[in-house]
């Protein structure tokens, strides 16, 4: 069973993809050794319909630091959706 389709069928929203259509940014978060070229997206943040993504970005490097992992960081800011009465 593929997990991502199950999560979306359950009504959860891919926070990164909500703001970045696939054609604009693939959102790759993992690289194969020797770490360097990010080539796949395997890290996600999902949220319910009670929230929306305000910002979402992949952080692949930090100036002055050696990246400690083959995974990039995914930074997402969520905000509550306005409820209609």
Describe this structure in words.
With 85 residues, the chain is α+β, with helices and mostly antiparallel strands. The chain has one domain (3-80). 14% of the residues lie in helices and 31% in strands. The protein is built from 2 helices and 6 strands; from the N terminus they run αβαβββββ. It has helices at 3-9, 15-19, and strands at residues 13-14, 30-31, 38-40, 46-47, 51-59, 73-80. The chain has a two-stranded antiparallel sheet with strand order 1-4. The longest helix has 7 residues, at 3-9. The radius of gyration is 15 Å and the shape is globular. The model has no long low-confidence stretch (mean pLDDT 90).
Number of domains: 1
- The percentage helix is 10-25%
Strand order of the largest sheet: 1-4
Number of H/I helices: 2
Q: How far apart, in Å, are the first and last alpha carbons? A: 38 Å
What characteristic shape results from the CA principal axes?
Answer: globular
The major β-sheet equals: 2 strands, antiparallel
Strand content: 25-35%
Work out the number of β strands.
Answer: 6
Rg calc: 15 Å
Poorly predicted runs are none
What is the helix/strand order?
Answer: HEHEEEEE
Structural class: alpha+beta
What is the average of the pLDDT values? 90
């Amino acid at each position: 069973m593929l997990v991502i389709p199950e999560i979306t069928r359950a009504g959860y929203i891919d926070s990164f993809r909500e703001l970045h259509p696939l054609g604009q940014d693939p959102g790759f978060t993992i690289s194969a050794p020797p770490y360097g070229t990010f080539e796949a997206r395997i890290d996600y943040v999902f949220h319910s319909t009670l929230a929306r993504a305000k910002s979402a970005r992949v952080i692949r490097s930090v100036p002055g630091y050696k990246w400690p992992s083959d995974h990039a960081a995914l930074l997402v800011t969520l905000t509550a959706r306005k409820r209609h009465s």
